Amino acid sequence: MAATAVLYVLQEYVLCHLDHNRLRIDGYYLEEENTLDVVFTGASEAYSDFSPGLAYEKFGFTSFPYASASATAGAAITQIKEIKRTQNPQLIVMEINPFLYPDDRNETKEGSIRNYIDNVPLNQNKIEYIKSLETADEAEYYLPFIKYHSSWSEYPGGIKFLGALVQQHIRGYTLLKGYKSNTGSCREDGSYLNDKLISDDSELPLTEDSDNKLRELLEYLNDNDIKNVLFIRAPHLVRQNDYESFCMANRAGKIINSYGFDFINFERDEITMSYPASEYYNVQHLNIYSSAKFTEYLGTILTERYGVHKSELNEKQTERWNQAVEYYHKLYRCIDALNQEGSQMLEIEEDLYGMRMMEPY
Question: Residue ranges per domain, the chain?
Fold first, then answer.
């Protein structure tokens, strides 16, 4: 029994891959059941473009990004199952980037798979997903310490994430509610096509695998009477080499609509198209300044168009969300002040300090 307990602690806190994905997914499962009004899912756009703390302040609804970097299309049904197992949200918002890769390499990329599934508690949904991978290393997914047995070598550098993970478990909730962004900015260099896209209906087919997985997801939602799902394409800076994905998003939107679900393409939206390149930290993600704008814009759409309403929380839950609001604003002010002082890019995530500094791109 003692050996089992020690192994559990090692696997959960030391012999694992500690990064922002682990903190976010772990933080999601710390949220009390049936207390989230909106759950975002998909890949990195879901946690970089929308701030749950700011949304709670402005609109009163609670939210969380149940998302991981480079999420695979094959994980989408498992994500939906896990959201429904743990929460009863008024709305699930799925960003469709996992279905828009120009080839299928991401589907079999171990890092992309593990960013998500390594951090899901063992249950039937996780087992079914691992079996669907048809991998010879199945045991490593059930017992990650086999894969990460040498991860101790990452310390003391990894102590930041270990400290953050321990702290959020002691606290019992996250302060940023899964949000991760930074203050980087892109340059206006004349290569972006955004001002030409609003009336561009051009389509390109998804890869065969992505098309099948999108249809499987939509059929699953309909077969299980899960109607409260909104699909979106987050804002991006679209260059010529990104145009293929833009056309694939148009095609995905048609497929989504054909199954009876709404799709909002923010690559073709007049409001989000006005965001300057300097408010993207790279071509795929909004920075802290424009994510604040997008949070208010999308929050308005969710409340006015989709009827998402203010949460009914008890005193303890309200106090925690008020703390998330306070922490977001303190962090924003601090990051903004530091950003004005120098050329370093500051990345924002849930760690011991709430932020970390990186060298500029």
Answer: 2-356
Using CA atoms, how far apart are residues 124 and 304, in angstroms rounded to an integer?
A: 37
157 neighbors 343 (Cβ within 8 angstroms)? no
Question: What distance in Å separates the CA atoms of residue 219 and residue 206, rounded to the nearest whole number?
Answer: 17
Give the pLDDT confidence score for residue 133 in this predicted structure: 93
Report the length, in residues, of the chain.
361
Residues 6 or more apart whose Cβ sits within 8 Å of residue 242: 236, 283
Say how far apart CA 179 and CA 247 lie, in whole Å. 28
Establish whether the linkage from the previous residue to 144 is cis, with ω within 30° of 0: no
CA distance linking residue 52 with residue 164, whole number of Å: 19
Q: Strand, helix or coil at 347?
A: strand
CATH number for the domain formed by residue range(s) 2-356 = 3.40.50.1110
Residue 185, number of CB atoms within 10 A of its CB: 20
Q: What is the pTM of this model?
A: 0.90
Q: What are the residue ranges of helices labelled H in 267-356? A: 288-304, 315-341
Kindly calculate the radius of gyration of the chain based on its CA atoms and give it in whole angstroms. 20
pLDDT profile of the chain (361 residues), mean per 10: 51 65 95 97 97 98 97 98 98 98 91 94 96 85 64 53 84 94 88 94 98 98 98 97 97 98 97 95 94 98 97 95 94 78 60 38 23
Which string of DSSP letters, residue by residue, matches 149-196? TTGGGGTTTTHHHHHHHHHHHHHTS-SSTT--EE-------S---GGG
Pairing status of strand 345-348 against strand 355-358: antiparallel
Compute the half-sphere exposure of residue 61: CA atoms within 13 Å on the CB side of its CA: 27
Residue identified by tokens 């299309």 is 73
Say which residues have a Cβ less than 8 Å from residue 335's Cβ, sequence separation at least 6: 183, 288, 346, 348, 355
Q: How far apart are CA 13 and CA 197, in angstroms?
A: 46
